[in-house]
C-alpha cells in the first residue's frame, strides 16, 4: 500500500465528502505515524518487515540515539584481549547494585553485564563507564560493544504522498508462514482512524477503531510460534 492509498483509505474511513474536509493531510500523516509506532509496539517482531539491526561502538564512539532502551534485544561485549563477542546479561537500574557492587557476582569478561542507565543512577565503582544511549557495559576495558536493536518505523511524510511511496510494514516472507503485509496496514489504519476521531472528540468511534486494531493485534500475535530473529 502506498502513502497516497493510506491517506485515501483514511478519508473513506472518516466519511469525508471531499479531500481533507474534516481532517487536514498533516493531521492524517500524524495519525498514520502514531499508528505505525503503535503497530511496532504491540506486534511481535517476527510479523514485521525485517527490522533487527546492530551497531558497534567503542569507548570513543558513544551512542547517538538510533534506538530506545525498550528496543534493545541483545548486547555483546568484545574484550580487548580476546576478540570474541560475549553476550551480556541485561539489567535494569533496580537490579544492578545487587551484581555490580557484589564481590561474588561482579561481571567478568566471561560473564559481562549491560545496565539500563539513567542520570539518577549512581555506582560505587571508581571507574566511569561510557554510556551507549542509556546502556553501560561492565566490566570496563572492552574493545567493542555490539547492540542488537529493533528499528523504529520510518515516518510517513508529505513527500511520500506526493511521490506515491510504498509503505513497507509487514513481511511477505514472514517466518510465521503467511503474508503479514495487508493485515498490518489495516491495523495501522485502525489506530490512525482512532486518533483522528479522538481529535474530533468522537469517543465512541475512536474506541471502536482502536478495539478493531487491538483485536487484530491479538489474533496475529497468537499465530507466532517461532523464536525472535537475532
Structural class call reads alpha+beta
Largest sheet: 4 strands, antiparallel
Total number of distinct structural domains: 2
How is the largest sheet built, in terms of strand order?
1-8-2-3
Radius of gyration: 22 Å
Strand content is: 15-25%
pLDDT below 50 for ≥5 consecutive residues: which ranges?
Answer: 119-129
Order of helices and strands: HHEEEEHEEEEHHH
* Helicity range: 25-40%
Beta strand count: 8
Mean pLDDT: 78
- Number of helices, where a helix is a run of at least 4 consecutive DSSP H or I residues: 6
Shape: elongated
The CA-CA distance between the termini, in Å, is 27 Å
Can I get a quick summary?
By secondary structure, the chain is an alpha+beta fold. It contains six helices and eight strands; from the N terminus they run ααββββαββββααα.
Blueprint (SSEs and pairs):
Blueprint: H1 3-13, H2 25-42, E1 52-57, E2 72-79, E3 85-87, E4 89-91, H3 96-100, E5 113-116, E6 131-132, E7 135-138, E8 142-150, H4 158-162, H5 181-199, H6 203-221
Parallel strand pairs: 4-5
Antiparallel strand pairs: 1-8, 2-3, 2-8, 5-7, 6-7
Helix pairs in contact: 1-5, 2-5, 5-6
Amino acid at each position: 500500500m502506498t502513502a497516497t492509498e493510506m491517506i485515501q483509505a483514511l478519508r473513506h474511513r472518516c466519511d469525508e465528502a471531499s479531500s481533507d474536509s474534516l481532517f487536514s493531510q498533516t493531521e492524517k500523516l500524524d495519525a498514520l505515524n502514531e499508528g505505525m509506532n503503535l503497530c511496532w509496539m504491540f506486534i511481535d517482531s517476527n510479523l514485521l518487515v525485517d527490522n533487527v539491526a546492530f551497531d558497534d561502538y567503542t569507548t570513543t564512539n558513544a551512542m547517538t540515539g538510533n534506538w530506545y532502551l525498550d528496543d534493545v534485544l541483545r548486547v555483546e561485549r568484545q574484550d580487548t584481549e580476546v576478540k570474541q563477542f560475549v553476550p551480556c546479561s541485561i539489567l535494569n537500574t533496580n537490579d544492578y547494585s545487587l551484581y555490580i557492587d557484589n564481590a561474588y557476582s561482579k561481571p567478568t569478561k566471561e560473564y559481562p553485564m549491560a545496565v539500563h542507565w539513567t542520570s539518577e543512577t549512581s555506582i560505587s565503582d571508581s571507574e566511569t563507564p561510557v554510556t551507549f544511549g542509556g546502556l553501560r557495559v561492565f566490566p570496563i576495558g572492552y574493545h567493542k560493544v555490539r547492540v542488537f536493536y529493533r528499528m523504529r518505523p520510518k515516518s510517513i511524510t508529505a513527500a511520500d504522498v506526493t511521490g506515491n511511496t510504498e509503505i513497507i510494514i509487514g513481511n511477505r516472507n514472514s517466518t510465521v508462514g503467511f503474508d503479514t503485509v495487508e493485515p498490518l496496514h489495516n491495523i495501522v489504519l485502525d489506530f490512525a482512524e482512532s486518533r483522528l476521531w479522538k481529535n474530533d472528540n468522537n469517543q465512541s468511534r475512536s474506541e471502536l477503531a482502536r478495539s478493531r486494531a487491538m483485536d487484530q493485534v491479538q489474533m496475529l500475535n497468537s499465530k507466532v510460534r517461532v523464536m525472535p530473529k537475532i
